[in-house]
Amino acid sequence: MKIVIINYGAGNIQSIMFAIERLGFKAILSNDPEEIKSADKVIFPGVGEASYAMRMLKQSGLDVLIPTLKQPVFGICLGMQLMCNKSEEGNTEGLGIFDVDVIKFSSKVKVPQMGWNTIYNLKSDLFKGISENEYMYLVHSFYAPICKETIATTDYEVAYSSALENNNFYGTQFHPEKSGDIGEQILGNFLKL
Amino acid sequence: MLTKRIIPCLDIKNGRTVKGVNFVDLRDAGDPVELAKIYSDEGADELVFLDISATEERRKTLVDLVRKVASTINIPFTVGGGISTVEDVEVLLQNGADKVSINSSAVKNPQLINDLAQKFGSQCVVVAIDAKQIDGQWIVHLVGGKVPTELNLFDWAKEVEERGAGEILFTSMDNDGTKNGFANEALAKLSQLVNIPIIASGGAGTIQHFVNTFIDGKADAALAASVFHFKEIEIKALKKELKNNNIEVRI
């Protein structure tokens, strides 16, 4: 199986590489459109600020490529947020794969949300064998509200989408690569799709 | 609900843990990777590695360690100690660290906080603040509490938040090593003052101290070293007791 992690200069890529290795696979880092197109599975990571990350994507033309991909694509954290219509962070236009706008938590709660929180209302093969209310590790200041593509929900100030799915596109707000054995199992489920 | 976090801290010198450890099942008590794995398996929510070595070789050794830890454990970890430039941080994050903790370098060059937050995001910037009370005022100290600064804890905390820190690790030098409990009054005040998570550090001696720092100190996370290393407190038992006190934890 060919697994490509999109390398566009944003994100803690090494942790995902290691998690994939622990699952017994190897991943390639690339921003080459041909390499990405030929992959069986594509992982779209992201950590940092949305408008900067989007600029980096545009520089390599990946903003055009990603929405056209046909194989399973997995956006993690900021990667998931960039797959939405737009983000309030830096007033950023997204890739429009998930039909929802990303907005900021209010100052009624501590921002960023940092730590372990539960996921529930699980509705996807991504969560095959995963019980309701398992803890996942999250670090984020912006969130995708509940929408028709929501496949997991988490509560922080409001109930919001901690995972999204649209056709071959999947996204999690949490970091499966940093969420213990259960997180690793979710990453493994994606690789088995 | 977001849980409160329990964070063991490992002091590292030349790639080895230095504080004595008391795990019977450890093959090599000085191996930080093996210790990290044990803590991770026991239910630690995060780990902090504090590098206290001062040799020229330190950076390379630390990077090797970060890679080994990142390849072994699947929970987040923070690396601190001697980090003073954007390049220092870049190499640690590239090798698998999730966050870095800066202390003296932030006091000496506050712009570093802005630069790191801008380049890597606030989520990976932890500002560690060591403070102790002098004439009733909480004063920020450097070099493990030896050197006082002009900074007031609360003013400095507010400033680091405004500059883009994602989290504050507050160690009370008055409490550190006493095993008499955390500085809950100052912690609660900090938690009210800033809107980023606060990690309580310094003073853990009993399970009740953790209960108190989450309830009275309003801390988001609690960090400790020796009580975990010497197995005076086991993480599983600690979390169970926190849950009995209606404190949300990951079990």
TrEMBL record, chain A:
<feature type="domain" description="Glutamine amidotransferase">
    <location>
        <begin position="4"/>
        <end position="191"/>
    </location>
</feature>
<dbReference type="GO" id="GO:0000105">
    <property type="term" value="P:L-histidine biosynthetic process"/>
</dbReference>
<comment type="function">
    <text>IGPS catalyzes the conversion of PRFAR and glutamine to IGP, AICAR and glutamate. The HisH subunit catalyzes the hydrolysis of glutamine to glutamate and ammonia as part of the synthesis of IGP and AICAR. The resulting ammonia molecule is channeled to the active site of HisF.</text>
</comment>
<dbReference type="GO" id="GO:0004359">
    <property type="term" value="F:glutaminase activity"/>
</dbReference>
<dbReference type="GO" id="GO:0016829">
    <property type="term" value="F:lyase activity"/>
</dbReference>
<dbReference type="Pfam" id="PF00117">
    <property type="entry name" value="GATase"/>
</dbReference>
<dbReference type="GO" id="GO:0000107">
    <property type="term" value="F:imidazoleglycerol-phosphate synthase activity"/>
</dbReference>
<dbReference type="GO" id="GO:0005737">
    <property type="term" value="C:cytoplasm"/>
</dbReference>
<feature type="active site">
    <location>
        <position position="177"/>
    </location>
</feature>
<keyword id="KW-0963">Cytoplasm</keyword>
<feature type="active site">
    <location>
        <position position="175"/>
    </location>
</feature>
<keyword id="KW-0368">Histidine biosynthesis</keyword>
<keyword id="KW-0378">Hydrolase</keyword>
<dbReference type="InterPro" id="IPR029062">
    <property type="entry name" value="Class_I_gatase-like"/>
</dbReference>
<dbReference type="InterPro" id="IPR017926">
    <property type="entry name" value="GATASE"/>
</dbReference>
<keyword id="KW-0315">Glutamine amidotransferase</keyword>
<comment type="subunit">
    <text>Heterodimer of HisH and HisF.</text>
</comment>
<dbReference type="InterPro" id="IPR010139">
    <property type="entry name" value="Imidazole-glycPsynth_HisH"/>
</dbReference>
<keyword id="KW-0028">Amino-acid biosynthesis</keyword>
<keyword id="KW-0456">Lyase</keyword>
<protein>
    <recommendedName>
        <fullName>Imidazole glycerol phosphate synthase subunit HisH</fullName>
        <ecNumber>4.3.2.10</ecNumber>
        <ecNumber>3.5.1.2</ecNumber>
    </recommendedName>
</protein>
<comment type="pathway">
    <text>Amino-acid biosynthesis; L-histidine biosynthesis; L-histidine from 5-phospho-alpha-D-ribose 1-diphosphate: step 5/9.</text>
</comment>
Automatic annotation (TrEMBL), chain B:
<dbReference type="GO" id="GO:0000107">
    <property type="term" value="F:imidazoleglycerol-phosphate synthase activity"/>
</dbReference>
<dbReference type="GO" id="GO:0016829">
    <property type="term" value="F:lyase activity"/>
</dbReference>
<keyword id="KW-0963">Cytoplasm</keyword>
<dbReference type="GO" id="GO:0000105">
    <property type="term" value="P:L-histidine biosynthetic process"/>
</dbReference>
<dbReference type="GO" id="GO:0005737">
    <property type="term" value="C:cytoplasm"/>
</dbReference>
<dbReference type="InterPro" id="IPR004651">
    <property type="entry name" value="HisF"/>
</dbReference>
<dbReference type="Pfam" id="PF00977">
    <property type="entry name" value="His_biosynth"/>
</dbReference>
<feature type="active site">
    <location>
        <position position="130"/>
    </location>
</feature>
<comment type="similarity">
    <text>Belongs to the HisA/HisF family.</text>
</comment>
<protein>
    <recommendedName>
        <fullName>Imidazole glycerol phosphate synthase subunit HisF</fullName>
        <ecNumber>4.3.2.10</ecNumber>
    </recommendedName>
</protein>
<keyword id="KW-0368">Histidine biosynthesis</keyword>
<feature type="active site">
    <location>
        <position position="11"/>
    </location>
</feature>
<keyword id="KW-0456">Lyase</keyword>
<keyword id="KW-0028">Amino-acid biosynthesis</keyword>
<comment type="subunit">
    <text>Heterodimer of HisH and HisF.</text>
</comment>
<dbReference type="InterPro" id="IPR006062">
    <property type="entry name" value="His_biosynth"/>
</dbReference>
<dbReference type="InterPro" id="IPR050064">
    <property type="entry name" value="IGPS_HisA/HisF"/>
</dbReference>
<comment type="pathway">
    <text>Amino-acid biosynthesis; L-histidine biosynthesis; L-histidine from 5-phospho-alpha-D-ribose 1-diphosphate: step 5/9.</text>
</comment>
<dbReference type="InterPro" id="IPR013785">
    <property type="entry name" value="Aldolase_TIM"/>
</dbReference>
<dbReference type="InterPro" id="IPR011060">
    <property type="entry name" value="RibuloseP-bd_barrel"/>
</dbReference>
<comment type="function">
    <text>IGPS catalyzes the conversion of PRFAR and glutamine to IGP, AICAR and glutamate. The HisF subunit catalyzes the cyclization activity that produces IGP and AICAR from PRFAR using the ammonia provided by the HisH subunit.</text>
</comment>
